[in-house]
Design brief:
Helices cover 38% and strands 17% of the residues. By secondary structure, the chain is α+β, with helices and mostly antiparallel strands. The chain has a domain of 100 residues: Endonuclease, Chain A. The strands form four sheets. The chain has a five-stranded mixed β-sheet. A hairpin with a 2-residue loop joins strand 7 and strand 8. The chain is elongated.
Length: 349
């Protein structure tokens, strides 16, 4: 078989019966439709219409949401990857018709299942993420967003879609409504789409943490993340049969200074558990470095007193709860082989 043989020409009216109702000029040429024929079909009142430069809708009337998404992706794709037949001896899978482009912003969040994102038909434009050096301009229903490097896309309903943290950052960049920003960030964590730290990293990279309404929403996001992590911690102790600890306590030396606040403490075994729900925000707060240093010093002080400190992240609790329970159980069992810890006062927080 000769892979370079073009497809047999088909009358333009038969193409409208294809499953894919959105094609590029290059894909039409591969199907035997010349540029002149495509232009004739797209004339005013004709059976086709040009949705975006180089992208044709094979029926009259408004496009569906799915057709708009496909059109935006095809517009943003590299033209040389679209409609090019496989070459003999070519290694690897054929190039994606969408190239490196992926849906991002509010449309991506809607595809990810966010109830606080608007429905697709109500979006006037669809954000599409492309490599930073692409020469493309926003036009029609396609709004170009650039990034370097690009994140790995996720496949949602067969479409390449930006991961939730990146889609959130691109959506927030275009929102001035503080309530809308807060709802999106809160749903990202409450709905289990991602951890707060991943969102904060993307917002930092997008230089959005200099906007007061975004900073306020991030503070709410971190509080939401801590509440969820604490709930998972209680569930871990209950479901995996760990001894009941003292919850949310403040440790002090007798008549001395505070040793720090802990999420859980087993006094008989001198084992402390600390949830790390903070997210680094480079460039936002100069005291961040001091806060991390203080945390490290507190942990070292406790360990010098004979207290074993178990450090758990919300992501580990979510993705590997059984493993984290085993870590805590091992620390509790190992207490019998350690020297007795210094006496500390345990106070409710």
């Amino acid at each position: 078989m000769n892979h370079n043989t073009p497809l047999s020409p088909r009358p333009p009216h038969q193409l409208a019966d294809d499953t894919r109702r959105v094609l590029t000029h290059a894909q039409l040429r591969a199907r035997g439709v010349s540029a002149a024929e495509a232009g004739e079909q797209c004339r005013p009142g004709g059976p086709w219409q040009q949705l975006l430069p180089g992208v044709v809708l094979l029926h009259p009337g408004p496009p569906t949401s799915e057709e708009r998404l496909h059109a935006v992706l095809l517009y943003a794709a590299r033209e040389r990857t679209v409609g090019v037949p496989a070459q003999p001896g070519a290694d690897g899978p054929p190039a994606s018709p969408c190239g490196e482009a992926m849906i991002t912003g509010l449309a991506a969040l809607t595809l990810h299942g966010f109830s606080s994102a608007p429905p697709l038909p109500s979006l006037e434009v669809v954000d599409v993420l492309v490599p930073r050096l692409r020469r493309l301009r926003s036009t029609g229903c396609a709004r170009i967003v650039r990034a370097s490097p690009l994140p790995a896309p996720e496949q949602v309903t067969g479409l390449p879609v930006a991961p939730v943290p990146r889609a959130l950052a691109d959506a927030v960049a275009g929102l001035e409504d503080a309530d809308a920003v807060r709802r999106l960030l809160t749903e990202a964590v409450r709905g289990g789409h991602c951890e707060p730290a991943a969102v904060v990293r993307e917002l930092t990279g997008a230089k959005l943490l200099n906007r007061p309404h975004v900073v306020d929403a991030v503070d709410s996001l971190l509080a939401e993340g801590r509440a969820l992590a604490e709930g998972r911690l209680y569930r871990m102790v209950r479901e995996h049969g760990l001894p009941e600890p003292c919850w949310n306590v403040d440790l002090r030396l007798p008549g001395g200074p505070r040793l720090g606040v802990l999420d859980a403490y087993w006094p008989q075994e001198a084992v402390a558990l600390e949830l790390d729900t903070r997210a680094p925000r480079p460039g936002r707060r100069p005291e961040d470095d001091a806060e991390w240093s203080q945390y490290a010093r507190r942990r070292e002080h406790l360990e010098r007193l004979g207290v074993t400190v178990v450090h758990v992240s919300p992501r580990k609790l979510r993705d590997a709860m059984e493993q984290q329970a085993a870590v805590v159980r091992t620390a509790l069992m190992a207490s019998a082989d350690r020297d007795p810890a210094a006496y500390v006062v345990v106070l409710p927080r």
